[in-house]
Write a structure and sequence with these properties.
6 helices; EC 1.8.1.9; 17 strands; thioredoxin-disulfide reductase (NADPH) activity; FAD/NAD(P)-binding domain; 316 residues; Thioredoxin reductase; 26% strand; alpha/beta; disulfide bond; FAD
Length: 316
């Protein structure tokens, strides 16, 4: 309702937004959690969450998010499904205009996340979480002693290939050019790693598999020749790790909130943006590690700082 003024409005219901909601609700602040799509963000595509502290009982992305949602609701957090199309953040009372309604709040936490760039090839979407991954830190362990292919040639692709080489028996970097774009120091480590191989001037045309990745088609960009890569018979599957960049979901805040050249929101260590009463948390924020554990930490800090901001700027 446009007449209601919330204490805190949180845009995005991934782990950062949910953690912010839990802390904000627990502080007895009137809290609104807005999500345009499905609750949970990227983590809901993860079959198993093995690196979130305490998630040892076969936790999946969806089950972890479900528990967070229950916790947020227990603390009185109001959840609405709406896509925010316009924001007015400079005034004391912030205004968020959605497709369905308009919302007002004393403080706003932006937790809109980031999306990995996709290859947009047949089979990629269907096999995400079933062999196709965008996060080596999350999924490397599942490919211990298997073969994996890393798609990309920048810093993150080569760094993740090096990380994967600690688990997989063989790592092949597939790059669409004839040389890597990664920093020379990182390249040298990859070239000197006897587990890492390279396929140059090639791109993925299709990913195939029934329930899990079983094969993929590569096309040579110079000759046009297509090659079918199939899983080892004993393995039955292999990993495809795609690292061709991330897209922070921050377009809505362009020219309003300070961002870096890639579109990540700039905050201080208290999650404060350049606008008073506006905070940011999670993958949409400029940071070095994008994981559930850091997203939750960001959300907790943002909510705690929002509470202090409200105490100091609004009289009872």
């Amino acid at each position: 309702m446009a007449d209601t003024i919330y204490d805190v409005a949180i845009i995005g219901a991934g782990p950062a937004g949910l953690a912010a909601g839990i802390y904000s609700g627990r502080a007895r602040l009137k809290t609104l959690l807005l999500e345009k799509e499905k609750t949970g963000g990227q983590i809901v595509t993860t079959e198993e969450v093995a690196n979130y502290p305490g998630s040892i009982e076969n936790a999946t992305g969806p089950s972890l998010i479900a528990r967070m949602v229950d916790q947020a609701e227990e603390f009185g957090v109001e959840r609405k499904s709406d896509a925010i199309k316009e924001v007015k953040l400079e005034d004391k009372i912030k205004v968020l205009k959605g497709e369905k309604s308009e919302y007002k709040a004393k403080a706003v936490i932006i937790a809109t996340g980031a999306q990995p760039r996709k290859l947009n090839v047949p089979g990629e979407k269907e096999l995400t979480g079933k062999g196709v991954s965008y996060c080596a830190t999350c999924d490397a362990d599942f490919f211990t002693d298997f073969e994996v292919y890393v798609i990309g040639g920048g810093d993150s692709a080569v760094e993740e290939a090096l990380y994967l080489s600690k688990f997989a028996r063989k790592v092949t970097i597939v790059h669409r050019r004839d040389k890597l774009r990664a920093a020379k120091s990182i390249q040298e480590k990859a070239f000197n790693n006897n587990k890492i191989d390279f396929i140059w001037n090639s791109e993925v045309k299709e990913i195939k598999g029934d329930g899990v990745v079983e094969s993929m088609v590569l096309r040579n960009r110079e000759t046009g020749e297509e090659t079918l890569i199939e899983a080892d018979e004993e393995d039955g599957t292999f990993g495809i790790f795609i690292f061709i960049g991330y897209l922070p979901q921050t377009e809505l805040f362009k020219d309003i909130i300070d961002m870096d050249e890639r579109g990540y929101i700039i905050t201080d260590s208290d999650m404060k943006t350049n606008i008073s009463g506006v905070f940011s948390a999670g993958d949409c924020r400029q940071k070095s590690l994008r994981q559930v554990v850091t997203a939750c930490a960001d959300g907790a800090i943002a909510a705690t700082q929002a509470e202090k901001y409200i105490e100091n700027n609004f009289e009872e």
